[in-house]
Structures are given as C-alpha cells and as structure tokens.
Amino acid sequence: MYPQIVPREIFDRVRSKITANKYGKLSVEVVYLLRHKLKCGYCGQPISAETGTSKTGAKKRYYKCYGRKNHNGCQKSMMRKDQLENLVVSTIIDELSKPKTLDQIVAGLLEEQERYIKEHYMLNVLLREQRQVETSIENVMEAIERGVITNTTTKRLKDLEARQEELDRQILIERSKNAVRVSVEEIKMYYKEALALEAQMLINYIVKEIVMYDDKIEIFFHKPTRNSPDESRGCFVYKGRNENFDVQIWIV
Ligand SMILES: [Zn+2]
C-alpha cells in the first residue's frame, strides 16, 4: 500500500501510529486523524466521524458528509476511516519525500515570494508619486492665491486631489504588507521537520483543508511563508492517482 520510495523509518512510524490509534490500548477514544480538515466537495459541509456496527457486532468507522447526515440531499458516499487516512497520509509522505516534489515546492514558493517583494517595492513608487502630487497641489494653490483662477486650474486641483486620495489608499494597503524573505534551506527544513512528525502532528502542521469527492481528493497545504493571506495565489504541488482517486495537492 505504501510505495517503497517512502523512507522505511517514516513508513514504520506512521503505520505504527495509525495502528496504535486503531486499537488504542490505553485510550478508549478513537482518533480521527483528518477530523476538522475534511470538507465535502459536493455540498461544502464538513465531513465528520461516523461509527457503525456490522452484523457481527464489530465497530466500523467512517468519514461521512455532515450535510448528507442531515439529509441536505448530498449524495457523497461514506469512506472507511482507515482507508482514507492511509491514502492521505501515504500520499503526503510519499510526495514530500521526493526531492523532485520538494524542488517544485521550493521553486513555486520562491517565485511567489519574488512576486510579492516586487509588488511590495510598489510602496517606494507610490511614495515618490505622493510627494510629486503634494508639490503640484501646492503650486496650483499658489497660482489660485495669486488670482490665477481658471476652469483649467480648478479642474487640475480636483484631479490632483483625487489622485492624492487614491495614493493614500494604495499606500495604506502596501504598508499593511510585511516583506518576508524565506530561503531555500528554510523551506526544505520546514518539510523535513514535518516529515519527522507522527501522523496527527503532520496533518495538523501541514494540512489546511482536504476537499473530498467520490473520485477526487484535493489536499491544501498551509504556506510555510508568512505573506499576508490576500497575496496568496497558491502553488501547485502534485497531481496523481492513488487507489481510485485523483489526488491533487496545492499550497495556498
Ligand atoms: Zn456533502
């Protein structure tokens, strides 16, 4: 089930954790690894834990669309807990263990970072124009004081004031952004550390949201960089197929 490309010790650690959760010797509470992360791709409702009992009396655990549970008309089928957790965790570990994927992530994040910083440089351009507009307004005011009042000067003043207002607004937006530069090493370290975590921690640390369809899983990772959220355009990580599911991973 786990591709052999996954480093043996990581595979063993995650498997043992999942197994321990499944049979929980000391704790009666069953851990649903993906709880609070899953969303139904059809109706947008959360996907929550569901327990059933088979004819033989054995407990069966599932993830079920909360909307369907409440009869909102959603037809999203239930998925076995272990199957979904193994699928998601193995896909994440498998992909993050590949140097090629990591390089792709690094390239995507650095590109976004450079774009961000370039846009941030806009602040200097805006401040320069703000000074120019202020000088122009002073000049027009002086002309008006000297008695030079024509339709042209009035219109010019109105235009300048409108531009000044717009610049103030844009400068405020630019100032609210924080320029942060993250290095290749820091990005790689972030994922290296993530891979060293046990499954629940890994999911909490790295996964923002998982959108489930009956034939497709979209996994959204948190961004390791700290640009303001509105800057995020996302970075594509992986597209593949795993156990009858199209799996896509994004960093958003
Ligand atoms: Zn649903």
List each distinct ligand once. Answer: zinc ion
How many E-type strands? 8
How many individual helices? 8
Please describe the biggest sheet, giving its number of strands, its sense, and whether it closes into a barrel: 5 strands, mixed
Mean pLDDT: 84
Order of helices and strands: HEEEHEHHHHHHEEEE
Shape, per Cα inertia axes: elongated
Number of spatially distinct domains: 2
**Low-confidence segments:** 1-6
Record the strand order, biggest sheet.
1-5-6-8-7
User: What's the alpha carbon Rg, rounded to whole Å?
Assistant: 27 Å
User: Span from first to last CA?
Assistant: 28 Å
- Which strand-content bin applies to the residues? 15-25%
Structural class: alpha/beta
Percent helix: 40-55%
